[in-house]
Amino acid sequence: MVKKDKKEAQKIHGSLGINLTRADLINENELKANRLFSLVCLFAGLATMLCLGLNECGVFVIDIVTMRIACIAATVLFVIPSIVVFVLKRKKPWVKYFLVSVIIAISLLLYSVFSYHVMMIWILPLITSLVYFDKKLLDVTVKVNILAIVIGHLIACKLLVVVDDPLRDVKAALLYGALPRVIIFLVLAMVGLQVINKASDIFDYAIDNSKEIGRMTDGIQLVMKQTQTLMGTRDMHSLASLIANSFSDVLTLMLHLEKAPSGVVGVLVGEEYYTVDSVGTPNKICIDFGDEVGFEFNNARFKFQKNVRDASSVAEVREGFINMKFYNKGVLTGFVLYKQDVDADDYSIKEVIDLFCTNTTSIINNTMLTFDMFRTQEQLAYSLAVISESSSQETGQHIRRVSEYAKIMGKYICENEEQLETFRIAAMLHDIGKLMIPKEIIEKPGRLTAEEFGVMKKHVVYGRDIIGNAPGDVMEMARHIILHHHERWDGTGYLGVTGEDIDKFARYVSVCDVFDALLSRRSYKDAWPAQKVYEEITSQSGRQFDPQAVNVFKQCYMEMLKIRDKFPDNDLDEENILSDQSAQNQQASDNKSDDENTAAVKQLPKINVDPSIVTPISI
Hints:
Layout: H1 2-8, H2 22-56, H3 64-87, H4 94-114, H5 123-131, H6 135-159, H7 170-230, H8 236-255, E1 262-269, E2 272-277, E3 287-288, E4 292-297, E5 300-305, E6 314-318, E7 321-328, E8 331-339, H9 347-390, H10 398-410, H11 417-427, H12 439-442, H13 450-457, H14 459-467, H15 473-484, H16 504-519, H17 530-539, H18 547-566, H19 581-593
Antiparallel strand pairs: 1-2, 1-8, 3-4, 4-5, 6-7, 7-8
Helix pairs in contact: 2-3, 2-4, 3-4, 4-5, 4-6, 5-6, 5-7, 6-7, 7-8, 7-9, 8-9, 10-11, 10-16, 10-18, 11-15, 14-15, 15-16, 16-17, 16-18, 17-18, 18-19
């Protein structure tokens, strides 16, 4: 029993903050029982002194000296448990044995003096031991108390303090006093043993249920934690992998598996079902059977109905498989199939799987909406960029290049791959407001007049208004970039915004915009050599540009030149191609001397974009 209790004395469900074990229940009960019987002994001591007072008043006719000795001695013994428990604060297992021993000693003392007048006192040690629900303590109590009953009767027949005591010799004390009381005591002890066995069953039931509660709680908490992770993606391909990894973790936790279970997860992408295996590796595309979608798994073929009227998501556990089907308005949006045996009576895992199914259904539906919205935003941004490009012969490839520059620099500032993709698309729209600027101003040879420049400056506001309140992350970021990309770090830009008040992403687009504009030939200027462009931008750190953005530019300079060569204007100067050795040497020198420029690019989590669904920006 001791070894078993030690093994069980482990945390069962720490997630609830409860360390519920058999040993814990017993120990907690012992502490409460110790305090309870210490208080009971104090009241018993008061009752004993009350009896002494009644005897002093002549209510009882017991010898005064004997009564005083017996009552005072019993009262002292009644006080000792309280001293041990409340004063010395002893909590060791021996305390319960000590308490029972004290009560047996008091019973022996009082019965020896008062004989059959305190006959019921022999039950008190038995009741005391039963409250601890300890078979070993009960066994010790029964043996010691039987011996005390025999001794008490023998002493009582010798002292004869009670003058009308009928048990006046040893034979009578043993046959008519001790023997009947021992028999009754043994019967009560047998009843007490049954009570302890029943209590033990209750403890075991409580332990088993606490384990299940802890197991279910751990599973539910894992599902809820994973729900937040799953909600963080807007790409269906990535979502399929995350679902596979998450559900594998759930099964491993709930079933205590030594290795990850095998399975397949599918999600609806466009009009096809994209599938991954249980570790997130792309699987075979499902076969379209018209009204059904089919796939192979574990050397077997499976089919699911694609369209079921009024169907709702469902999780099933049967025939060695765990199966989930996710529906939205009767359309199958995804499925999960794992090969895993689960006990049909395992309530906990069924509840956790049902919760996973419910949460995943909502996540798939939300991700599909987000994915469609993002795709729509990208299509809209691309279409507007194409219109903007076609409106000016001079800025033809400028928008495309700025978008690609932003993608390169964005690796240093974006929190994840999704934000980087949002930044790339939003950057395409930075000059969309020029659609509202007269063509003769945009393509005017020579310097603009003050009045013309005033009109040109309005393109940031026009662009912001063109985007308006269009929803989505792309449009939200684009609004800030459009409005702030001509602001200067020192506050001398179009709108007079300064420093950190300038939108972070706009600060980087500003560098990209100027970099490309200086490298390009315009009607009012010739293209600058790459070396001169590099020197101009780095010299404007802290004045026109955010110093950190310039540092990132230095890191990205050579890669940005490659983009410049990949999407050239028709009149690109040959001096600005990547082979400009002086530019390469300059950047190498700056990178070596500038410690801030040696920072590594953030390792962003990757997402997969289906080229058949999303219109490509780069050709």
